[in-house]
């Protein structure tokens, strides 16, 4: 946890960071430093006693879970994949997309009796999804473009984040089934939530108001 | 080829010098408090049958247990908790003992945390259990001793949090949920997952119990939550609120006023283990509770004796690490005197050493054969004095 008077917030670098900074600006915060950050990873919002840490999605969860940061903005995809202990107090609404199961157009993923192979960047989400269906699958972890796996015939399907579906279409794939919707969430360290209740609730409410 | 001979498993650690001393200090502090209040220590096996930790009122998921099999192929676990072994003892060897029983233990606990989570898989846990007794009196004793424990750490920015699992049990029982739905609801309440909680409760429309669960999850903070809760709680839940408020007042009367927070959104995690007052202790700078406990009236019945019980446990490693971090590393006490024996005077030196210790000093005997090397060692060890024992007697040198 950061010192008692200050709030330290971890933002997922990239699009969620941009959206959150935009939100802060709407709330009347001075975001000059956040916009012109150079290579710095810890930034401040003048006059708000807020420190902003920029981190990779999974690290946001780690920092908030361990209390190194009080609050985090992170996608539901990362929360589902990495778990952890923290309060998930608000759906910020931006960064909307979904996890979906996709396969080659026109093929019957659930057909036949053989064990299916599924390629994904998110093995935990995938395992959980098929466990809930009580279905055995082989999971292959892929780091880059998952769409390649069915094309190279190493997988019957993929579980991946789908926004518009353009990449799928251009590669002859289609969504077989939606797994779960995704959006940016506000997570809070469980101890910070208790020790800095007023400040955190105030900030969360202001963020939600600015979204509305 | 050996690969792991110089490593400790993830989640375990060597505690060296001040780390070890800091841990023992915490343990001593707690022991003093517990024995002072008339508690008796028990030690339970580090290795137990899996069945002990797999009961109706509480079970540990397979993933968090370190498991092995014994020579007969039976499933064993490394103790993940001390309360259940104590419940086993109460249900067996102490079943005819006069109640209430006041027991404490101070031993290691093993939990298989997710990899790279940065949490200890092995840690010292010290805590008390009050078995039997009248509910209000026993609750107040457990709470006041827990409060004393938090105060004993001598840090200003600690928090003591109280709640009651009865609210959730009562309110959720009115919603006619299936088991899985109930577990999901519990999870949303525990993780203050407001979006998921609201979505789930929206399906119940104007149901007053559903609305109350939504409101109660958000009701935490100072004593003002009691008035707020009175406005949202159905009548049958008010006795629980009254009792919690009385407890809150009593704790304030004990001088805890500025340190107590109330969380009315407490739901026993993953199973219905807690049956009444629950509480947590936090130290600023450590991201999880360092103390947690509460009333568990059903557990001991699983071991054959139907008696209410309450208690709490402290994660000593967490406290020691937090305190050490704040103090910027404490200094280990240096020996007062270093003693060097000249050739032929080893026995005399040992006698001299024992005499100094008997006089209340700390004295270290040098195992080195060389006088100058011994003097250097005394300096490194930050001893105040260097004694040379020779045939003519003892020569003392002060070390600046």
What percentage of amino acids of chain B are in beta strands?
Answer: 15-25%
Strand content of chain A: 25-35%
Task: Round the Cα radius of gyration of chain A to an integer and report it.
Answer: 20 Å
The level-1 CATH class of the largest domain in chain A: Alpha Beta
CATH hierarchy class name of the largest domain in chain B: Alpha Beta
- Return the average pLDDT of chain B rounded to an integer: 92
Distance between the termini of chain A: 29 Å
Number of helices of chain B: 12
The tally of strands of chain B reads 16
Q: What CATH architecture label of the largest domain in chain A applies? A: 3-Layer(aba) Sandwich
Tally of individual helices of chain A: 9
Number of strands of chain A: 11
What count of domains describes the coordinates of chain B? 3
Strands of the widest sheet of chain A, in order across it, are 2-3-1-4-11-5
Largest sheet of chain B: 9 strands, mixed
CATH topology term of the largest domain in chain B: BirA Bifunctional Protein, domain 2
Based on secondary structure, the structural category of chain B is alpha+beta
Task: Identify the biggest protein-protein contact and residues per side.
Answer: A-B, 27 and 23 residues
The structural domain count of chain A equals 2
Radius of gyration of chain B: 27 Å
Notable traits:
heterodimer; A: 212 residues; alpha/beta; D-Maltodextrin-Binding Protein, domain 2; B: BirA Bifunctional Protein, domain 2; 3 domains; 9-stranded mixed sheet; 4-stranded mixed sheet; 21% strand; elongated
Describe this structure as you would to a colleague.
The complex is a heterodimer of chains A (212) and B (400). Chain A has 212 residues and is α/β, with parallel strands linked by helices. Chain A has nine helices and eleven strands. In chain A, the strands form two sheets. A six-stranded mixed sheet of chain A has the order 2-3-1-4-11-5, sandwiched between helices. In chain A, a hairpin with a 4-residue loop joins strand 2 and strand 3 (50-55). The longest helix of chain A is centred in the last third of the chain and has 15 residues, at 197-211. Chain B is of the alpha+beta class and 400 residues long. Chain B folds into three domains: 7-164 and 268-332, Bira Bifunctional Protein, Domain 2 (BirA Bifunctional Protein, domain 2, 2-Layer Sandwich); 166-259, no CATH class; 337-398, 3-Layer(aba) Sandwich (Rossmann fold). Chain B is 37% helix and 21% strand. In chain B, the strands form three sheets. Chain B has a nine-stranded mixed sheet with strand order 1-5-6-12-11-10-7-9-8, with helices on both faces. A four-stranded mixed sheet of chain B has the order 14-13-15-16, sandwiched between helices. A three-stranded antiparallel sheet of chain B has the order 2-4-3, with no helix packed on it. In chain B, strand 3 (67-69) and strand 4 form a beta hairpin. In chain B, helix 1 (18-36) runs antiparallel to helix 3, helix 3 (135-152) packs parallel to helix 9 (238-256) and helix 4 packs antiparallel against helix 7. The chains are: A alpha/beta (212), B alpha+beta (400).
């Amino acid at each position: 946890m950061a010192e008692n008077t200050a709030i330290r917030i971890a933002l997922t670098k990239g699009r969620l960071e941009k959206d959150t900074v935009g939100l802060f600006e709407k709330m009347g915060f001075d975001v000059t430093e956040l916009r012109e950050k150079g290579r710095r990873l810890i930034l401040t919002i003048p006059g708000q006693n807020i420190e902003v840490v920029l981190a990779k999605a999974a690290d946001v969860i780690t920092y908030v879970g361990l209390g190194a940061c009080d609050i985090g903005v992170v996608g539901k995809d990362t929360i589902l994949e990495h778990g952890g202990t923290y309060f998930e107090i608000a759906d910020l609404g931006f960064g909307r997309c979904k996890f979906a199961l996709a396969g080659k157009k026109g093929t019957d993923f659930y057909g036949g009796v053989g064990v299916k192979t599924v390629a994904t960047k998110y093995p935990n989400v995938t395992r959980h999804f098929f466990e809930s269906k009580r279905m055995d699958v082989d999971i292959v972890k892929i780091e880059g473009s998952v769409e390649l796996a069915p094309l190279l015939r190493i997988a019957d399907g993929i579980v991946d984040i789908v926004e518009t579906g353009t990449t799928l279409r251009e590669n002859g794939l289609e969504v077989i089934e939606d797994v779960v919707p995704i959006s940016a969430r506000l997570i809070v360290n469980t101890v910070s939530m208790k020790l800095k209740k007023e400040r955190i609730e105030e900030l969360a409410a202001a963020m939600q108001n600015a979204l509305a | 080829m050996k690969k792991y001979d110089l490593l400790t498993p993830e989640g375990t650690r060597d505690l060296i010098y001040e780390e070890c001393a800091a841990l023992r200090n915490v343990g001593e502090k707690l022991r003093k408090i517990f024995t002072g209040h008339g508690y008796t220590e028990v030690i339970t096996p580090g290795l137990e049958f899996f069945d002990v930790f797999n009961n109706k009122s509480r079970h540990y998921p397979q993933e968090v247990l370190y498991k092995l099999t014994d020579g007969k192929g039976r499933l064993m676990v490394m103790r993940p908790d001390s309360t259940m072994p104590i419940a086993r003892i109460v249900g067996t060897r102490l079943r005819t003992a006069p109640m209430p029983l006041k027991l404490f233990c101070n031993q290691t606990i093993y939990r298989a945390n997710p990899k790279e989570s940065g949490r200890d898989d092995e840690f010292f846990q010290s805590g008390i259990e009050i078995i039997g007794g009248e509910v209000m009196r026993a609750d107040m004793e457990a709470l006041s001793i827990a409060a004393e424990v938090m105060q004993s750490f001598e840090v200003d920015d600690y928090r003591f949090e109280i709640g009651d699992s009865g609210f959730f049990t009562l309110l959720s029982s009115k919603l006619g949920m299936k088991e899985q739905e109930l577990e999901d609801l519990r999870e949303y309440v525990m993780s203050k997952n407001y979006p998921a909680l609201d979505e789930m409760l929206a399906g119940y429309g104007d149901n007053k119990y559903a609305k109350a669960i939504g409101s109660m999850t958000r009701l935490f903070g100072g004593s003002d939550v009691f008035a707020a809760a009175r406005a949202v709680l159905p009548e049958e839940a008010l006795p629980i609120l009254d009792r919690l408020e009385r407890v809150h007042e009593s704790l304030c009367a004990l001088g805890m006023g500025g340190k107590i927070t109330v969380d009315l959104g407490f739901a026993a995690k993953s199973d219905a283990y807690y049956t009444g007052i629950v509480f947590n202790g936090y130290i600023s700078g450590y991201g999880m509770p360092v103390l947690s406990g509460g009333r568990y009236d059903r557990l001991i019945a699983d071991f054959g004796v139907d008696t209410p019980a309450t208690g709490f446990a402290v994660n000593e490693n967490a406290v020691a690490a937090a305190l050490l971090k704040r103090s910027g590393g404490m200094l280990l006490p240096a020996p007062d005197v270093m003693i060097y024996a000249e050739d032929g005077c080893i026995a005399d030196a040992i006698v001299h050493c024992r005499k100094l210790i008997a006089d209340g000093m700390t004295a270290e005997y040098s195992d080195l054969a060389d006088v100058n090397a011994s003097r250097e060692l005394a300096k490194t060890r930050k001893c105040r004095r260097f004694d040379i024992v020779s045939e003519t007697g003892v020569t003392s040198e002060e070390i600046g």
